[in-house]
Design goal:
The protein is of the alpha+beta class and 127 residues long. It has one domain: Lipocalin (Beta Barrel), CATH 2.40.128. It has one helix and ten strands; from the N terminus they run H-E-E-E-E-E-E-E-E-E-E. Residues 1-25 have low confidence and may be disordered.
Amino acid sequence: MSRLIGFLAAAAVALALASFASAAPGSPFVGTWWAVDPSDNSLEQLTFGADGSLFFRDDSAHTCGDVQAFLTDTGTVAGATWTGSGNATLACPSVGQTIGPVFFEFTLTSNGTLVGDGPEVWTRARP
């Protein structure tokens, strides 16, 4: 009986370690990043998936007449840079508008923030 309990305990520990290891991001980009647009103080969100996917949200996109906008894309990582497809479309649902193609590229800096082609500095902490 004690052998069975020992085996079950070891199996539970191994399973917990395996699920922890598989949950670890495969890229430094994976997860959610936040920024404040300095031109209007609106909240912006980036979420990168392990498969290279990107979800972007701007609570007040100038391009959409200062309403909320969304974008999804898929890109690749080379070194410290994530590069989008260049074929993404920005959607502005509340005004029924789409804008594209849109190109996004983000670089991971030495201090752990992300920068793109805009003035925003992206961090893991939600403002």
